[in-house]
Design goal:
homodimer, mainly alpha, two-stranded parallel ribbon, about 60% helix, globular
Chain lengths: ~180, ~180
C-alpha cells in the first residue's frame, strides 16, 4: 500500500538479489512507448488500463521477460498487485515468496503528508479513496497470503532494513 | 484467515472488552433459525449466501443489534470479512479499529493439519482453494487496511497474548 515503505525495503534487499524490478517502472516504460505522459496520479489508472486491455498478468509477463533477459536467479519484484501476477511468477519458479510490508492507514497517511510529493494525497478522504482504488485489483488478497509480513509502524529505517534482511535470510533457509 | 490464531487472540482480549462477538456464531444462529444443519465445511458458504441474500453488511448489522442490546462500550468482533462490514461498524463508532492476525500460508496449513478437525483441509491444494474462497468477500482488503497487524508466525501462545494485549493497550492510548 502507498506509504508502507515497500520500495525502501525492496531496494534494501539488493544484497540478496541479482536484479530488482519495479512493476511501476514497467508501467512507465509502456507509457513512454505509447507516448503518454504520466503523473504519479495517473500511473495507477494507466496500470489498471494495461491490465484490462492486455491481460491481468501482462505486467508480470513483462517482468518475466526482463528476468529471463538478465538470466537472474534471485529476483526482487516490487509492486505486485494481484494473485494472477503471483501465479505467473510461481509458474516460472516454485520458489516465489510474497513479502508484504504493512503499516496502518494512519501511519501511511502521516508519511505521505510528510513526503508531500505533488501527487501524494493531501486529505484523509483523498487518501482513503486512493487506498480503495489500490485494492481494486486484488492487492489485499496478495497481502493476506504473504509468506512474510513485515510490520513497519514506527521502526527507524536502519532497524527496518536489519529486520527485513534477517527475516529474508530466515525465509531463504527455511524454504531451501 | 483460517489457522492464523485470530479467535484465540479475540478471546484473549476479554480483559479489554465488555463483550466479544463472533460473526461465525451469528451465522450459526441464522442457520438454526432456518433449521439448517451446518458443518464447518458449509459455514462459509452459508455465510456468503446470507450476505448475498440479505445484504453484504447483514451479519454486521446483527452484531450491532447485539452490541446495542448489551449496551456494550468496548467490543471485540471476531471474523469481519469485508470493508462493507467495517463501514457498518464505523457508522456506529468512529473508534472502530481493525486488528489483523497474520500467519504465512505454510504456517496456517501446518496448524490446521495438526488441529485435524474433520472439516479442516487435509491437503495443500484443498487448503489453497479454501483460502481463495475465504478471500472472495474482500477479506484481503480488510487485512491490508488493518490498524494493527499482529504477526503470529512462531510465537508461543503466552507470548502471542502478551504481545497482542500490549499492542491493543498502545492502540487505545494512541487513538484516545
Amino acid at each position: 500500500m502507498p506509504g508502507s515503505g515497500k520500495s525502501v525495503v525492496a531496494r534494501g534487499l539488493k544484497e540478496f538479489a541479482d536484479i530488482i524490478i519495479s512493476m511501476g517502472d514497467i508501467v512507465r516504460e509502456e507509457a513512454i512507448k505509447k507516448g503518454i505522459k504520466l503523473s504519479s496520479n495517473t500511473l495507477m489508472e494507466f496500470a489498471k488500463l494495461l491490465r484490462r486491455e492486455r491481460g491481468s498478468d501482462f505486467i508480470a509477463r513483462e517482468v518475466i521477460k526482463k528476468i529471463k533477459e538478465a538470466n537472474a536467479k534471485v529476483v526482487v519484484v516490487d509492486g505486485v498487485r494481484s494473485l494472477e501476477e503471483v501465479k505467473a511468477f510461481k509458474e516460472i519458479s516454485g520458489r516465489t515468496y510474497i513479502v508484504a510490508i504493512h503499516s496502518s492507514p494512519r501511519t501511511r497517511f502521516n508519511r505521505l503528508v510528510l513526503r508531500g510529493r505533488e501527487s501524494d494525497p493531501k486529505t484523509w478522504d483523498e487518501f482513503v479513496r486512493r487506498d480503495i482504488s489500490e485494492l481494486e485489483l486484488g492487492l489485499g488478497s496478495v497481502i493476506a497470503l504473504a509468506d512474510i509480513m513485515i510490520v513497519n509502524e514506527d521502526l527507524p529505517l536502519d532497524d527496518l532494513m536489519k529486520f527485513a534482511s534477517t527475516i529474508i535470510k530466515k525465509l531463504m533457509i527455511r524454504f531451501d
